[in-house]
Every structure is written in structure tokens, then in C-alpha cells.
Amino acid sequence: MTGDAPALVLGIETTCDETAAAVVAREADGKGRILSNVVRSQTAEHAPFGGVVPEIAARAHVDVLDGLIATAMKDAGTSYARLAGVAAAAGPGLIGGVIVGLTTAKAIALVHDKPLLAVNHLEAHALTPRLTDNLAFPYCLFLASGGHTQIVAVLGVGNYVRLGTTVDDALGEAFDKVAKMLGLPYPGGPQVERAAGAGDAARFSLPRPMLGRPDANFSLSGLKTAVRNEASRMGRLQPNDIDDLCAGFQAAVLDSVADRLAVGLKLFGERFGAPTALVAAGGVAANQAIRTALREVADRAQTRLVVPPPALCTDNGAMIAWAGAERLARGLVDGQDAPPRARWRLDDNVTIPATFANTRAGF
Ligand code: KG4
Ligand code: ZN
Known about the structure:
Layout lengths: L6 E7 L4 E9 L5 E10 L1 H4 L7 H23 L8 E7 L3 H17 L4 E5 H12 L6 E6 L4 E8 L2 E7 L5 H11 L6 H11 L22 H14 L4 H34 L5 E4 L6 H13 L4 E2 L3 H4 L3 H13 L34
Helix pairs in contact: 2-3, 4-11, 5-6, 5-7, 6-8, 7-8, 8-9
This protein binds 5'-O-[(R)-(carboxyoxy)(hydroxy)phosphoryl]adenosine and zinc ion (ZN).
Zinc ion binds next to helix 4.
């Protein structure tokens, strides 16, 4: 790399059920540009099982990854020789898939003699608003997907403090499980949102988990069980029953998210001063009702809400490439011995309840 030429980084994402590759450019002034971004979702492969099946996911990544990388390189109009680095998500996630992506990145880096960036998938979500909005540190991230539910203070590259997390299910996971128990197809989030729009949220009295607690943690399993109990009490469900249960569930989630984030922003302010923004990422940020609730929370906390475009909120290669580029610019490169990790926390200074250890949200 010479002078002020942008640094081009290839990014590979295979931690869950999306196979993705992208090339981004990081300018000398720190601004980012996406040169290519290709994603192949495995939703169709997993839909018959009502959730992601790890073995099917790993095999599907193997089948399509090489082709996706070739497409990403071609779309970007670049060559391996012109890359400044090769990044892959090295975790947290389903270990079979992580191995596929990380091994591929290592091979490319080795053959073309490029630095390897073994990126934390959560860090990639956390740094995305710097790619999309050139956002300055420090900001407060709300990450809510099928595998993660976290409130994170993003203070700098490699400098994250987790302010809150779920003690049981991830938020998207709860949407998916509620959908499944009500007979709605996978992935359940959009289905539940649609049904909720037609339902009466007041018909069922459902719990608001963790409301009023001084920490910023989440809990979804009690609410999920309450929905299940109501459903089995009624026996055979009519369409309006399903709509009303979805509406009740979503209303309870909104109250809980608003309360938890208000606490998270308060803790942020006490420890780090005013954030530059509240950032929402992850598939659940696609939910319009949740977005509205987040905007109100941000308003009350006198900050602004930043939500990257949907394709960059959900899993993608551009965020991995970008996190790699941000790390590379600071000399944070990895060796060929970088391990794939099923679990990989962004920080270590949060005490987690014992119940947290046995769920996939415990990354
Ligand atoms: O970030 P994402 O695409 O993948 C990972 O989990 O990593 O998030 C997918 C999750 C699923 O659980 C899905 O049901 C949920 O996000 N989701 C939604 C909505 N759209 C997607 N949850 C609630 N409302 C939605 N509109
Ligand atoms: Zn993700």
C-alpha cells in the first residue's frame, strides 16, 4: 500500500445461515466504501426444520463460498494482488461454518501473502455505522438478532463494554419460537410482526420481563412460556387468536426493550458521557414497531437513532471486511494460528447468571 491509496479488504461471513463475501475500501481519512457485497441466505434449506441446523449450514457454506468470493472480487473489479488484507468472521457462531470461512480466508491470505484479519462477528456489527454513517465514537449499540441480544458501549476499535445481554433467549430467537408454537413459518419475526398488526394487544395479559430492574439485561423465556400457556389453554387456535397472541407478545417485547434500553443509555451516560448515537443492528431492527420504540427511547435520552440499511443490519460480508479494514489500519492483524471460536465475547467484565451458559445466545 502506498501513500493515500484506499486499503481494499475482502471479507467473509459464515457464522450462521448466511454465506457472504464482500470487498470494501477504507480511505486514508477513515471513510468507507463498499465495492461489492454478495450474500446467499440458507433460509430455504433450514425452513423445513423451523430453525438453523448446524450441519446443513456448514455444508451449504462449503458448497457456495468459493463462488461467492469470486463474484465479490469480480463485482469489485479488483484482484487478490491489490488487496490490503483478507478478513473472516472467526466467531462467535456455529463452529462448522466458522471453520469453513476462516480456513478459506487463511488460504487466500497465505497464497497471496496478505495480512489475515480474524474478526469477531459482534465487533463487525458494532463497527458497521462507521462504514454507513462515518459515526464517531463513543456510541451505544443495540444488537438484536436470532443469536444475540446485547447493549454495547462502542468506545473505539477493539474497545467495547457490554452493558446488557439476555439471560436466556435472544430476541429474534423468541420471535422465532413464538411463531413456531403458533404454527407460523420460519423465520418467525416478520410473520409475528405481520400478525401483530392485525391483533388486539390488550386481550391477553402477558408479563413484561425485567421491567424496572437497575441492570440492562433482557429475559425472554418467561414471556415465551406465558404465550405458550395461553395458546395451550385455548386448544385449537383461530386466526384471530394467533393475531392477538402475536400482538400481545410484541407489545410486551416493546415495553421490555424500551425499558432495558433506557437503563442501558443511563448506564452509558454515567460511565462514558453522552453517546454520539443509539445504533440498532441485527435482523430484529427490521421490525417497524421496535424501530418506533427505539426512536422514542433515543429522543428521551436526547440522542439520535442510527439504523444501518437492512442489508447491512443483518449478517453480511461488508461488515466483516470493514471491521478487518478498521483493525488493519491500527496494525491489529492475526496469524495463521488464529482459532475459530464458537463463543467469543466482546469484553470480559460483565458477570453473567449461571442460566446464561446453556443457550446459544450466550456468545
Ligand atoms: O441478523 P439476522 O438476520 O441473523 C442472525 O440471527 O444472525 O437476524 C435474524 C433474526 C431472526 O430471529 C428473525 O426472526 C428476526 O431476526 N427478525 C425479526 C424481524 N425480521 C427478522 N424479528 C422481529 N420482527 C421482524 N420484522
Ligand atoms: Zn449477526
